[in-house]
Amino acid sequence: MNLDKFLVKGEPMIYAAMVSIVVASLAILIGLTYFKKWGYMWREWLTTVDHKKIGVMYIIAALLMLFRGGVDALLMRAQLAMPENGLLDAQHYNEIFTTHGVIMILFMAMPFIIGLMNIVIPLQIGARDVAFPRLNAVSFWLFMAGAMLFNISFVVGGSPDAGWTAYFPLASLEYSPTVGNNYYSIALQIAGIGTLLTGVNFIVTILKMRAPGMKLMRMPMFTWSVLITCVIILFAFPVLTVALALMMFDRMFGGQFFTMANGGMDMLWANLFWVWGHPEVYIVILPAFGIYSEIISTFSKKNLYGYKSMVVSMVAISLLSFLVWAHHFYTMGHGAMVNGFFSITTMAIAIPTGVKIFNWLFTLRKGRISFTTPMLYSLAFIPIFTIGGVTGVMLAMASADYQYHNTMFLVAHFHYVLIPGTVFAVIAGFHYWFPKMFGFRLNEKLGKLAFWFIAICFNITFFPLFFLGLNGMTRRMYTYSEGSGFGPLNMLATIGSVGLAIGFVILVYNVYWSFRYAPRDTTGDPWDARTLEWSTHSPVPEYNFAITPNVKGMDAFWAAKKENQPLYEGKIEPIHMPNNSGQPFILGVIFFFLGFFLVFSMWVPAIVTGVGVVIMLAWRSFERDHGRHISVEEIIETERKLGGDTV
Amino acid sequence: MKQLFPIKHVMGYLFSLVLSVVALAVIFFDLSFSAAMVILLVCAILQASLQLFLFMHVSEAADTKKTLYLNIAYAVFVGLVTIFGTLFTMIWGYQ
């Protein structure tokens, strides 16, 4: 077999990456063998259907992808630091901004949020697991297969290079003849199926598995935000599925959906992409709003101001999110009618979002605020996100957008929305729920140090981009002349990005430090919080609650603490739990190879692996697995070990 | 044995296959645009209701009826927005 087809050659950086990938994989394999951890890995992690462990795996994957996407970002900033810099050539730069975008949105932000969802939602609603635990594992392994497939494109065959939006005709076979964009269509498709399944799973979980007494309007705000997010996932992702399938037909089977000839319509791709893409923005931002609501309310020692208006504004956002997509391509050439319509719907989104900002401010008002690390991220979010939001309204005006379109102004805007919106939120949520996952808090001093680095350097990195954009620097240009005058501000942005990277290194070091030295939390409620997840032990036993909690109002755990309302009534009974299964992992591996063979148009192995997928589905269909019961003695023993007082 | 065999589901499965073949037939016969569209639309509606009622049990559980129909309404809303919005941006509103 000719290896030239597969391996990317002639780039020292890529050779270094190949070496480091091989070394890291060998280190993992040798480490697992040396410490005899293979059985542990298989039993406790690869086959698990426990929502908490799946959540932890999602977050680990997200952090790895944050590292990958972050290195991409640093390379871009290094290239742009000086005029006419020769660090990266144009092709390389194209590949790097493409993978940066795809990885940060789909393989970092999404799994981080889904990971927190997995860990928190069943606990917040007083359930023992999600509605379909096995399906949850399938979701994770499909996501993982898609993410890994996308990542190997870097050294095997070449990365996609048509932007994270992969606009046609650039992304067509004619203009992007390498396999890069095949990776895009297949890897996103596989990960997208996983996301869709997650959406279904959590809608059912939230609607059907709430503890007795927890009416919809008594749910914690994070649960509400996840419910609405999942509804958006359920309706937005099918459009991406279809668009990616059409892309695959175009690139591999001679389809003409998005070509310039034979009745194809190249801009239809942009249209379909953003019919999914704009709701996608809200898929990553709404759970973030939920996380902030929990944190702000907990650390202000007050219930959330304007609960109902929060819910109503999220529902409004979910509807409006489907009505604004054309604002991503105002300059495509449609008439004033279309641009006017989408300008108005876009500006309308600022209204429910503004309502939420005011609700958080009023929650803070007269609260007893404690400045913990998660709270610092939440407080920094409000002003920074508002800058992002206001520049968004500027971009929403179609006629003005002709000036800003595809400039660095836009790049600054969406980083100002996504980083304080989503990234700060997931980091804040990570700090906030970390004791629930592992039984101890992250170090506050290191956490705050990382926060100040990240918050300040974020602004140093991205604020100059507003001015660069207004001065005419377009996005995605790999270099610029000295005469353009873009040099100094770009240098400033690059310096900021290094500080941002230092902040993330401190964050990771904090996790390491805390694992070794942080004092263990024995209360299960280190923050004096309000919602049900804090009423059980940390780390959480596999069955979550020995006795199903009985909810009598909003913030049930707070009421239980302050008004001595009993939360756990009744006695311990045997608990029915699902069995672990290796099938989801095997299915993920098969999907990975199926995707790989499709990318390289190797039809025979693709058909073989495709049959493998069908066999896996059939196996599951004819399987009888009624789960198992945890006996009362075992529960009492576990509760005693964890120092619980619910018995 | 008779009660165990899911006759309704097998029939529904066969029927959905037939509908797919009928839809495919549109490209093999020389039909006018409107005739082809009518066939496709009728097949699509039948196919969708087949899936919803036979395989997804929309009408079976009384306690979830409201949620299910609300969800379908939302789906129809998003579907119509996608189709007519696309026509609006790509064809009708194009300069």
UniProtKB/TrEMBL annotation, chain A:
<dbReference type="GO" id="GO:0022904">
    <property type="term" value="P:respiratory electron transport chain"/>
</dbReference>
<dbReference type="InterPro" id="IPR023615">
    <property type="entry name" value="Cyt_c_Oxase_su1_BS"/>
</dbReference>
<keyword id="KW-0813">Transport</keyword>
<keyword id="KW-1133">Transmembrane helix</keyword>
<keyword id="KW-1003">Cell membrane</keyword>
<protein>
    <recommendedName>
        <fullName>Quinol oxidase subunit 1</fullName>
        <ecNumber>1.10.3.-</ecNumber>
    </recommendedName>
</protein>
<feature type="transmembrane region" description="Helical">
    <location>
        <begin position="224"/>
        <end position="249"/>
    </location>
</feature>
<keyword id="KW-0679">Respiratory chain</keyword>
<dbReference type="GO" id="GO:0098803">
    <property type="term" value="C:respiratory chain complex"/>
</dbReference>
<keyword id="KW-0249">Electron transport</keyword>
<dbReference type="GO" id="GO:0004129">
    <property type="term" value="F:cytochrome-c oxidase activity"/>
</dbReference>
<dbReference type="GO" id="GO:0005507">
    <property type="term" value="F:copper ion binding"/>
</dbReference>
<feature type="transmembrane region" description="Helical">
    <location>
        <begin position="446"/>
        <end position="469"/>
    </location>
</feature>
<dbReference type="InterPro" id="IPR000883">
    <property type="entry name" value="Cyt_C_Oxase_1"/>
</dbReference>
<keyword id="KW-0349">Heme</keyword>
<dbReference type="GO" id="GO:0020037">
    <property type="term" value="F:heme binding"/>
</dbReference>
<keyword id="KW-0812">Transmembrane</keyword>
<keyword id="KW-0375">Hydrogen ion transport</keyword>
<keyword id="KW-0408">Iron</keyword>
<comment type="similarity">
    <text>Belongs to the heme-copper respiratory oxidase family.</text>
</comment>
<feature type="transmembrane region" description="Helical">
    <location>
        <begin position="96"/>
        <end position="123"/>
    </location>
</feature>
<feature type="transmembrane region" description="Helical">
    <location>
        <begin position="135"/>
        <end position="156"/>
    </location>
</feature>
UniProtKB/TrEMBL annotation, chain B:
<dbReference type="GO" id="GO:0016682">
    <property type="term" value="F:oxidoreductase activity, acting on diphenols and related substances as donors, oxygen as acceptor"/>
</dbReference>
<keyword id="KW-0560">Oxidoreductase</keyword>
<keyword id="KW-0812">Transmembrane</keyword>
<comment type="similarity">
    <text>Belongs to the cytochrome c oxidase bacterial subunit 4 family.</text>
</comment>
<keyword id="KW-0472">Membrane</keyword>
<dbReference type="GO" id="GO:0042773">
    <property type="term" value="P:ATP synthesis coupled electron transport"/>
</dbReference>
<feature type="transmembrane region" description="Helical">
    <location>
        <begin position="12"/>
        <end position="29"/>
    </location>
</feature>
<comment type="function">
    <text>Catalyzes quinol oxidation with the concomitant reduction of oxygen to water.</text>
</comment>
<dbReference type="Pfam" id="PF03626">
    <property type="entry name" value="COX4_pro"/>
</dbReference>
<feature type="transmembrane region" description="Helical">
    <location>
        <begin position="68"/>
        <end position="94"/>
    </location>
</feature>
<keyword id="KW-1003">Cell membrane</keyword>
<keyword id="KW-1133">Transmembrane helix</keyword>
<dbReference type="InterPro" id="IPR014250">
    <property type="entry name" value="QoxD"/>
</dbReference>
<feature type="transmembrane region" description="Helical">
    <location>
        <begin position="35"/>
        <end position="56"/>
    </location>
</feature>
<protein>
    <recommendedName>
        <fullName>Quinol oxidase subunit 4</fullName>
        <ecNumber>1.10.3.-</ecNumber>
    </recommendedName>
</protein>
<dbReference type="GO" id="GO:0005886">
    <property type="term" value="C:plasma membrane"/>
</dbReference>
<dbReference type="InterPro" id="IPR005171">
    <property type="entry name" value="Cyt_c_oxidase_su4_prok"/>
</dbReference>
